[in-house]
Amino acid sequence: MNRRPALILCFLLPLWSAGCGDFPELDARLGPADQTADYPKLVPFGPILAQAGEVTVAQSDVEGVAGRAAALRARAARMRGPIIDRATRARMRRGVDTSGL
């Protein structure tokens, strides 16, 4: 049995149905001043980078981010552990007692 046509249909059908959607009326959301406004002016990239270099970060912000990062690392370490603890795994390996059935 050839599955290729079914697979192609599975990929093309969502794309085809997405093309049927209505786009929102973006022009209706703009006010008259926005519709007649000039395009934004392009600025050189150098001054933007210079302003970004002048930004300072408070020590409390650094400590807050470091604390959150440590909490996330601890959470990730807990998630790396076994999902089922040893006692539960041993009980599962014993199986179900069907002698009373």
TrEMBL record:
<feature type="signal peptide">
    <location>
        <begin position="1"/>
        <end position="20"/>
    </location>
</feature>
<keyword id="KW-0732">Signal</keyword>
<protein>
    <submittedName>
        <fullName>Uncharacterized protein</fullName>
    </submittedName>
</protein>
